[in-house]
Each structure stands twice: as C-alpha cells, then as structure tokens.
Amino acid sequence: MAIAITNPTTGEVVETFKPHSDDEVDRRIAQAQSAYEALAGTTFAQRAAWMHQAADILESDVDQLARMITIEMGRPIVQARAEVLKSARGCRFYADNAEDFLAPTTLGDPSTVGASAAGTRYAPIGIVLAVMPWNYPLWQVLRFAAPALMAGNAGLLKHASNVPGSALYLDALFEHAGFPEGSFRTLLIPASGVERVLRDDRVKATTLTGSEPAGRSLAAIAGSEVKHVVLELGGSDPFVVMPSADLERAATVAVTARNQNNGQSCIAAKRFIVHQDVYDAFLSSFAAKVAALTVGDPLDESTDIGPLATKSGRDELAGQVDDAVRHGATVVTGGQVPQRAGWYYQPTVVADITPEMRLFAEEAFGPVASVYKAASREDALRLANGTTFGLSSSVWTNDADEEDWFVDHLDAGAVFVNGMTASHPELPFGGVKDSGLGRELAAAGIREFCNLKTVWKA
User: Fold this and answer.
1) Where is the Aldehyde dehydrogenase domain (predicted)?
2) 237-417: which CATH topology?
C-alpha cells in the first residue's frame, strides 16, 4: 500500500508521502537511542510535566486533529473529536500515576531469603517499536506511547500507511511538549520494512495492534530475537442478552456497540446472542434502530455512519454478507453497497447465521451485526466462546447469579455487564486466544515494557 492520504468519502488521493530511506530510518533509531539515554536520567516529575504538556497540545489542537482523522479514515467528526480528547486523558492518566505504578517494593521479612533487605524495582528497557492500525490513529498509539515514555523508554512508530498525517503529527508531539529530541519517532516505511527495524539491537521490544496474520509474523521475528512482544489482534466480541435484561436499553446500546467508528473497532460487539424468550422483541427493536442511523458525510456533525476506511475493507465486508446470504442467512436490514461515491456500506443486521458462513467465524470489520438465537444460558455461552477470538464481551442480565456465571465462564480478556465494551486508561486491556497476548493500559500496560529487577542486600 502506498503511503498516502486517500479520502474514503470521495476515494480521492489527498496527499502522498515518500517513504523514509534506510539511512533515514537508521538516523531516527539513533535519535531514539540518544533520547532513551537522556530520559534515563530524568525524574518521573519531569516526564509528567512534559506529558501534561502533550495533553495540553492535543486539547488545543482538537478541532484540527478531528478533521484530519475524519479525512484520513472516515470517522464521523463527533467521534473523532472524542478520540483526541480521550488521547489527552490517557496522557494525563499516566503522567499522574506512572510513579506509583512503578514504585519499588520491599519484602516484609527479608530474613526469609537470607537478606537484610530485599524487594523489586522497575527500570526502562530502551526503544520500543509500535506497529499500529488506522482505525483509532491517535488513541491506539498514545495508549502505548504515554506509558512507554513515562517509564523512561523511547518509542518508534510504524503507523498504517493510510494515516501518515496522524503519524507525522505524533512524530512531533512529544518533542513540542519538551521531551528530548527523538523520544518518539515515526518511521514512514512499508510493512516489509518492519523486520529490519525489529532486528536492530537497539530496539528492545515491540507491540502491535492489527490483524492476526500480522501479529503472528511480528511475534515470530520478536521470538527469534528474544524480544518482548504485546499483541492486540482483534476480536469477534459477543453481546449476550438474557430474559431478565432491560431489552430497550440493551437494544439502544447495541446499536452504538456495533456501529461505533463505522463498525471498525476491535472491541465493537459483533455477534449478538439473544435468548429465545426475548429474541424476537430484541431483534425487532435493534434492527429498527440500526435502520434509523444516518449515513453521510463524516464531516457533518449529524452523521452516524461514514465510509469504511479502505475500499478493500468495504469489499471484504460486502463479500462476507453476500456469502452469508448465499448460504441461507436473512438480512433484516441493510446489506447493500450504497450507490454513491466513497467506500460506504449500509448499517446491516443479519440473522440465521450457520457455521458454514464466513460471518460465523470471521471478524466483520464494519457496520454489520450478526444475530444468534440461544436456547439457554449454556447455549449462549457455547456460541459466545465458539470462536478463536477472545478480546472482550458484554452480557445483559439482571439476575445476579447469572451475571457471576457469565463473568466466570466467558473466555475473553474483559466482561462488561449491562454496558458496552470500551477501553479505559484505568483498566487493563487485552485478549486471550487469537486476540493476542499481554496487556495495555492501567498499571499492567506500563509494566509490560519495564525490567522488573529483584534487589537483594546482604
């Protein structure tokens, strides 16, 4: 894929960018190494002041950044604005909490290990390479960058090739905020250039948010180099509705849970598993609300659904729905490519899904909801856990015993009860099975890229 901004609303190329040469990549790695060595001598208080300044810059640039995100990848402008402000919030969270998260610990009775004192300390490890996707072009990066820099590491970013504007903004952000030159550097390189960077001895670890094949490839390289890796590889998250649920609220939240960011979210609810006793009522309400969404120009404040970010993504989604229909699925609403410029797809609800359909096992990355009927809570759990993914999940019930049962048995990195799955700086984020390994956010996220040292004193 060329490194270019292509407006998905029109399909027109806005601007192209020349990839960095190998010499330029080496220069930027060297800058990051020098910055890491400088950051190692700074205090948490100093880094926190710089990180707060980065948050201030994001907030002051919110309108400019929201427009840039919308033009680059089609996110509705209201949601794009919220992404910028969430990114600033994430920066402030780590500025305020990093020192506590990485505080030394002491063993209560060091004599048990034959010492006068013993405990642990966290230390930064060096340069961390991030390979990031286009769907949340600021938040995905900053939820890695803020903790990495607050821990005293330096960062390199290989961003998705269709959001170079966001990538270059981030390249300058931390330096403008006061961090040493090179603390965070963008590399304008193709996917084929990642291996060379990761094998550089100065790069100590890597993180990727993206597709399962990309994650497996990166992890294989990191493993061969004995370098730490954190992966978030998407999901096909279940949204389970039981008879005791508040159906109207569940249906209302389900619309947002599926269609946020034009349906292009790893943690968007994708499979709606509804108990047979309330299936018809939920499906009727849910489909009507989906059909009422406004599809239009994402720069218009009233638009709910904009275009998908890429033509290939739109065509892939349409192919999944067409395959389901050929195998007997029912399109309750939507299911068509609109006759208009840009890479749009109608908000869609599909029922009567069976295992031979691609939608049964594949992640649908766009505004398409698959609805399943469950005969019991055990049947609902079987369907919920019946994919190779395990990122997050949502269960709707007002039965306390049922709530605990689902929390215990859902095979996912998170369970949200009577609410929409979301990422929060204060809570760990990550999945199990093919959804990845490791955690971002909260204390777990900053500790992923630290050396946990055991300290023993005679």
Assistant:
1) 3-455
2) Aldehyde Dehydrogenase; Chain A, domain 2 (3.40.309)
